[in-house]
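Lab notebook page, bench 4
Experiment: in silico fold of construct C2
Operator: M.H.
Input chain length: 475 residues
Purpose: comparison with the prior construct
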Amino acid sequence: MALSSPSLVFTVQRCQPELVAPAKPTPREVKPLSDIDDQQGLRFQIPFILFYGNEPSMAGKDPAKVIREALAQTLVFYYPFAGRIREGPGRKLVVDCTGEGLMFIEADADATLDQLGDTLQPPFPCFEQLLYDVPGSEGVIDCPLMLFQVTRFKCGGFALAVRLNHTMSDGAGIALFMNTLAEMAQGATEPSVPPVWRRELLQARDPPHITCNHREYEQIPNNMEGIIPSYENKMVLRSFFFGASDIAALRRLVPHYLRKCTSFDLITACFWRCRTKALEIDADEDVRMMVIVNARARFNPPLPAGYYGNAFAYPAAVTTAGKLCENPFGYAVELINKLKGEVTEEYMHSVADLMVTNGRCLFTTVRSFIVSDLRHFGFKQIDFGWGRALYGGVAKGGAGPFPAVFYLMAHKNAKGEEGILLPIWLPAKAMDKFANELDHMLIGNQNQPTDPHPIFYASTLENIKWTPKKLIGTQ
């Protein structure tokens, strides 16, 4: 486990932002987004970043020029990204394919990548310098759909920061775009995986018919109060690294019948428990963990390989803070493990129907936590000619105004160990408690029995009893 605490201060000299339009004429048309795309919870811009080291074979080549030209070529195929979002009746979003282009910034930093620390991970020092928030560009409606900034460092390396309008694509979708961009940068003339729009595949049915239980959209009174805990608004961001030994320590805490659960299940359950304890949530209050599930392969037939729209759901596991924190660790792991199987083709159609029925509502934010696994989208493998990225993934954690989202990303720490990196936002007061709880699970429990509570845990989850009390401090 590792924490980042950057203190470096550097300055960036930026050129004026410019619009990069498709290199060739593209269709002038209006394309509706799907009813999964335009839900309230995706109406924000999400930043991510890739860092590249100096590559001697690319001497004399300017990464800003290479990427700018590749963007123009890529937009010929992904031309909706050169348009603008408009909102129509019923809050329905469409893309007006105007061909105006996406926004691009070229910049230089007076620092080297080595100065950023032993390992590149959020929070990044002076990130606002690496992705300039161009005034008037940050909205969802009538704004550029993507913003790119290439920042050259004195060592010959560079950073590529990207801000995406999430209504256009999810992680799998933007990975398709970025891989095409890399292919164009290396001389390709067309994408190896042609992009597919087909947003009608995820439109609501006529008439809409909600057939599944969607606890992720339960409308709790004063919903927005849960975005930032009321007792403290000062949020801090830290990254935590899980290596093989950390995963093994967590796996020792679950019963034998759960031993084949994934590292995702273990880490998600661990973070959910530690975060709930750190925030000192009343034992009788509901808490929920929403797991983002890529649904592309859940359709019959599967969605086309080049589909780059949002194609995921986030079903919610709901329990009380008391049950989550006081039961054996396997309780939380099993809740997460079972949750992923809920997403089916029918579930996705039911979500779309719920969106048009309930005004494209926001997911539940009160005492909620969302997790997304980005490890399999290959952001670090994106190669513009300078080799693999030193870091490739989200820039901050969180999702728009909602900070309680964490992402699993493939990462190599300063010791060269391959593992999983997770950035997390918490109130400053709670972050130390969270780190202590995590240390207790990873280190303090290493001598636990191989199969904790085997008889007790054989009971069903519903039969576990709990006496409400106030959770305070480190349990």
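Observations: Confidence is low (pLDDT under 50) at residues 1-5, 223-232, 446-475. The longest strand covers residues 418-427.
Next step: discuss at group meeting.
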